[in-house]
Task: structure prediction
Amino acid sequence: MKALQVPEFSSYEEEAAFWDNLDTADFMEDDGEWFRFNTKQAIRVAILPEIAEELTKKAQAEGVSIETLVNVLLIEHIRESVPTN
Result:
């Protein structure tokens, strides 16, 4: 099993393309189990309808799912707000 190396991205489009095209087969253990569930789970967050509408339009324009777009925007915001040493 290989370790996943996530590169630095110059745009959310570049990051979205990376995640959308990633084949995870090389990063899975070949232990005969088809599925392994992690204790971490996705969470649901309520979004105001007008924000959801804008996100949907932007995701469609970028050719990605709304989930991918939201995750990319959130991680970009987190990375920008965390001071580097």
Remarks:
- The chain has three helices and no strands.
